[in-house]
Amino acid sequence: MLKATDRKIYDLIKKEQKRQAESIRLIPSENYVSKSVLEATGSILTNKYSEGYSRKRYYEGQEYIDQIEEEAVARAKKLFRADHVNVQPYSGSPANLAVYFALLKPSEKIMGMSLPHGGHLTHGWKVSATAKFFNAVQYAVDKKTNLLDYDEILEIAKREKPQIIVAGATAYPRKIDFKKFKEIADEVGAYFLADIAHISGLVAAGLHQSPVPYADVVTTTTHKSLRGPRGAMIMCKEKHAKLIDKAVFPGLQGGPHDNTTAAIAVALKEADTSKFKNYAKQIIKNAQALAKELLNYNFDLVTGGTDNHLILIDMTNKNLSGKQMSSALIKAGIECNANTVPYDKRSPFDPSGIRIGTPAITTLGMKEKEMKQIAFWMNEVSENVNNERVLKRIKNEVKKLCGKYEMPGLK
Ligand code: DSN
């Protein structure tokens, strides 16, 4: 139908589909969703307005929407063992903002991980609204080990006395000790927010310590390792439920995206299976296999490896910037993003590192053998960033490998 009514957009979608099907997609926050998740996302639920919450809506005609939202909430509660869940945030940034608006007064203090050290904009980075409406103080990773230094975090917390401490990262390849964060938060009387957007699939599968027992509030996007639609959830202790719900609606948002809510429910059902557990296990196995191979090619991995789904590589020893490497990789059909590394001396537009991850390629069905091949290509690319002929040849080889896998969501 779209083909007939809007050829331009149809063609662009098809081209993007082909691009996704023919590339090795290593951006650690991306994935391929199932046909069922796509179907719910693209359903007639997009026609409906449902401001409010189940059984307390401002518009009529909610008998099915209420059931869908209740089901999504119940599935999230079961999977993450959470007291209370709100599935309405449009995405991760609004979810975090809602938490701050729920628990803090304007200009109170947020303490989070600094963005160039692996945190997120909404953890109080200076250009984000979270640092404009609130005071923000940041912690970094240890200069020598590039690991979180919990003693240092405690010291900063004691000195700065934040009202909320945020744990969670977008570029940290190691496990996070949420229990320790809780102890630090308790010691200074702060709320504790855990943002598990990147690792929620691993948490759901029991492969990473869950912050749910420790944190006042846990936020996550639903489209990364959890493999759902683009959206977010806020999980919290019952005592914060009213404040959190009010902050999302009517505080920050209008009507929830009911099609997304349904797709979240579908993804949560998929995530509550042994098949998903095996998928999550393979994500980590693949990341560790890829890390091992990359080390053999003398790539400089931040922290020396990975415990989770992502790898951060400092390209300095290869005499390349992150952007040079990511631009060459995409010409070879391998997609990643340039990323700052801790204590980076370069600019965020052209930082020293690249960030790669395995959630998407693991969904395709790739295993350790393919990780060996990907590392081989990455090394070839790093030695040939300006050799268009080599990059093109690799792109053809990548296409051939990807051709062996069926892109999820199409059939
Ligand atoms: N933009 C996301 C990422 O790529 O990590 C974080 O929200």
The DSSP helix count reads 16
CATH architecture of the largest domain: 3-Layer(aba) Sandwich
Spatial order of the strands in the main sheet? Answer: 4-10-9-8-7-5-6
Query: What is the helix content?
Result: 40-55%
Please give the structural blueprint.
Blueprint lengths: L1 H4 L1 H16 L1 E2 L9 H7 L10 E2 L2 E2 L5 H18 L3 E3 L5 H12 L5 E5 L15 H4 L2 E5 L10 H11 L3 E4 L10 H11 L2 E5 L4 H5 L12 E5 L10 E5 L4 H12 L5 H14 L2 H23 L3 E2 L8 E5 L7 H10 L2 E2 L1 E3 L13 E5 L1 H6 L3 H16 L4 H15 L9
Parallel strand pairs: 1-13, 5-6, 5-7, 7-8, 8-9
Antiparallel strand pairs: 2-3, 4-10, 9-10, 11-12, 12-15, 14-15
Helix pairs in contact: 3-11, 4-11, 5-10, 7-8, 12-15
Bound molecules: D-serine.
Structure description:
With 411 residues, this protein is of the alpha/beta class. It is 45% helix and 13% strand. The strands form four sheets. It has a seven-stranded mixed beta sheet with strand order 4-10-9-8-7-5-6, sandwiched between helices. Helix 9 links the parallel strand 8 and strand 9 (217-221). The mean pLDDT is 98. The structure holds D-serine. D-serine binds at residues 29, 92, 120, 170, 197.
List the keywords.
15 strands; alpha/beta; Aspartate Aminotransferase, domain 2; binds D-serine; single chain; Aspartate Aminotransferase, domain 1; 411 residues; 2 domains
Brief summary of the model shown:
This protein is an alpha/beta fold.
